[in-house]
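In this supplementary section we document a worked example of the pipeline. Step one takes a protein sequence of length 207 as its only input; no multiple sequence alignment statistics are reported here. Step two produces a three-dimensional model, which step three serialises into structure tokens for compact storage. The input and output of this example are shown verbatim.
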Amino acid sequence: MTSIVVISAGISVPSSTRILADSLGQATVRALSSVDVVETSTSYDVIELRDLAHLLTDNVLTGFPTGSLADAVRRVAEADAVIAVTPVYTGSYSGLFKMFFDVLEEGTLQGKPVLMAATAGTARHSLVLEFAMRPLFAHLRADVVPTAVFAASEDFGGGSVRGGSLAARIDRATGELADKVLRRGTTLPDDPFENPTPFEDLLNDLH
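The serialised model returned by step three reads:
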């Protein structure tokens, strides 16, 4: 089974962060299920960081995760891919979001496909994806998909993600994530155009 773990750092119930997290998880499952070469089932589960807030604080004091926090860390380590979604606070990801990734052991996300997403009141905060989140996951050596997803308050309606450009961006980002998952498992052949043979070598082969 292909396992996708979605990390949601939303605080309120319900939260736009969780709505976006579910939309991304569902779209990833659809993208993976639509590929004929996938013979195993695909599922996603959500880790709600608000439920782990007290355990995260305990971890800061004790230095090791316990209980459901330890289980969440294990699920991330065993996942085939991670979708990380945070609300934006004071121009960056939330403190709760950062605390969780501080818990992970070094190398947990190394080479693991990751999709980044964020929510905020206005589109003015969208650059947090590139100037805060991408450097974080680069430091963790994750394999981050090129397309990140940002959603402002206006992108939600009736407890769900509205269509239009956001829906298209979700489809593009989750398609990229699905592709990385499949290639990481060597299910798909390498793209010959990603690492082309140098022209000089081609000429040498003619002699």
